[in-house]
Design goal:
heterodimer, A: 255 residues, alpha/beta, Rossmann fold, 6-stranded mixed β-sheet, 4-stranded antiparallel β-sheet, B: 233 residues, mainly alpha, MetI-like fold, binds adenosine-5'-triphosphate
């Protein structure tokens, strides 16, 4: 196998715009993501990073623009059935994990498989155990979220999202709510997921993750993409003043 | 004292039975009404809101009289226990509807977003994710309310059904000495109330998994992370 096939576009966003009242949070954002690509989205607080990825699975309704997933366009307004079909293909991991507190880790991973995909309980449970083992929590399957550390909860949340076999995974600051010493176990799982070829968009403040795992770094400021490049180039020679200022501030903080 | 107690115990059985019937009738209705108040079309929410307002606004004694003496005038004749079940059930439903509604409203927005992001059908998300959290949240207040209903069963006295107070009063009158029996009756109420309250806090402790002695570190949002992947690899 030496033929090089052109990258297949997994996600294509054009002209995405969103305002909250007079506040323009997203201004005409364009972004193409290839299948298997890992894109790190960085930028200052309030620049619209969360709003952007939440528009991709329609937790927010964009005002304008198109989102194409795997070549299929999405209508501006979706029926609830179309919406659920979209969300089955787009996994999301939240900053605050958002596990179901009344259910065990295993049940958290089983429940959406059974009720969103219609898998049998038996199949769902087998898959859940496999995924929990993969994120290093095989032994914790019967624990409730409150009995798990932040890092463990987030790994369950990743397993839960992966269990629907999504085409693309969105992460919104997945490690920001976790104790620093426990972040690495989550980042390691994310790196493994990336290595298996998952298409990923990761909003993050983890510059090392962006540097070491991402294929591309996208810098957001004031609701637009100011600059994007592959990580080495991005960190070595940022082109815009705004980017340089941001990097100076973050890297300062890391020292 | 012991002798007084044995006189009153049959009354306690009546009170507990009334409590059980009131909860059996009132809680399911209260839950349905609470769901309607939380999320339902306006044509349903409005009448439910009015009815539960009425149920909370009427003194329980008035509701008891209305059902026992008023209903027969429109052709509905109920015996004492049935009338009390309807009256207490209505009051219970009216009060707990609001407990259920606010418990449902207290489930964080993040849970609704998780349901949506995981493509769960809304009804499944409601029944399997929101409702269990709301019930857990509502339980202590529900048991607290059950204590009030239990004390309210003394109103059975007003339509001649002999529960603890009724028996204490009758027996006391026969003996020309009401006070010792009334004090014993009060002690009985207090004991049952204390038991229910203890049950409530015990349940609350069991239902709140953070209180369990397990491996646990609550993560709180923290600012800027510093982590390298290499140190783990
Ligand atoms: N539901 C909302 N209503 C009104 N304003 C909102 C809403 N959600 C977000 N905003 C505003 O939109 C802007 C962009 O928010 P967003 O959460 O997308 O930023 P972000 O880049 O993710 O920031 P952070 O790094 O702090 O998470 C902010 O100014 C925010 O206050
Ligand atoms: Mg954000």
């Amino acid at each position: 196998m030496s033929t090089i096939s052109p990258p297949v576009t997994a996600l294509s966003v054009t002209g995405l715009a969103k305002s909250y009242g007079p506040l323009e949070v997203l201004k005409n954002v364009d972004l193409d993501v290839a299948r298997g690509e890992v894109v790190a989205i960085i930028g200052p607080s309030g620049s619209g990073k969360s709003t952007f990825i939440r528009c991709l699975n329609r937790l927010e309704e964009p005002d304008a623009g198109t989102v194409m997933l795997d070549g299929a366009g999405l209508a501006p307004s979706l029926t609830s059935k179309e919406l659920r079909a979209l969300r089955r293909k787009v996994g999301m991991v939240f900053q605050s994990f958002n596990l179901f507190p009344t259910h065990t880790a295993l049940e958290n991973v089983v429940l959406p498989q059974v009720h969103s995909l219609g898998r049998s309980r038996q199949q769902a449970e087998a898959r859940a155990r496999e995924l929990l083992a993969k994120v290093g929590l095989g032994e914790r399957a019967d624990h409730k979220p409150a009995q798990l550390s932040g890092g463990q909860q987030q790994r369950v949340a990743i397993a839960r999202a992966l269990a629907l076999d999504p085409e693309i995974m969105l992460f919104d600051e997945p490690t920001s709510a976790i104790d620093p010493e426990l972040r690495v176990e989550v980042l390691r799982v994310m790196r493994d997921v990336a290595a298996e070829g998952m298409t990923m968009l990761v909003v993050t403040h983890e510059m090392n993750f962006a540097r070491q795992v991402a294929d591309r770094v996208v810098f957001f400021a004031d609701g637009t993409i100011v600059e994007q490049a592959e990580p080495a180039a991005f960190f070595a020679s940022p082109q815009h003043e705004r980017t340089r200022r941001f990097l100076a501030a973050v890297l300062e903080e890391e020292l | 004292m012991i002798e007084n107690l044995s006189v009153l115990l049959p009354g306690l059985a009546v009170s507990l039975r009334l409590l059980g019937l009131a909860l059996l009738a009132g809680l399911p209705l209260g839950l349905l009404a609470g769901i309607a108040l939380f999320r339902s079309p306006r044509w349903l929410r409005w009448p439910v809101a009015v009815l539960t307002e009425v149920g909370r606004g009427f003194p329980a004694l008035v509701t008891v009289y209305l059902v026992y003496f008023g209903f027969p005038q429109v052709g509905v004749v109920l015996n004492d226990v049935a009338a009390l079940t309807v009256a207490f059930g209505f009051t219970t439903a009216s009060y707990t509807a609001d407990l259920f509604r606010s418990a449902l409203a207290s489930v964080p927005k993040a849970q609704h977003e998780a349901i949506a992001a995981l493509a769960l059908p809304p009804l499944k998300g409601f029944a399997l994710v929101l409702l269990p959290q709301a019930l857990r949240h509502a339980l202590p207040a529900l048991i607290g309310f059950a204590v009030i209903v239990f004390q309210g069963t003394a109103l059975a006295f007003s339509i001649g059904l002999k529960e603890v107070i009724g028996i204490a009063y009758d027996e006391g009158t026969l003996r020309f000495d009401v006070l010792p029996l009334l004090i014993t009756a009060a002690a009985l109420y207090l004991a049952v109330s204390l038991i229910l309250t203890a049950l409530a806090s015990g349940l609350q402790r069991r239902l709140d998994p953070t209180a369990r002695p397990a491996t646990r570190r609550r993560a709180l949002p923290r600012p800027a992370p510093v982590t390298t992947l290499k140190e783990s690899a």
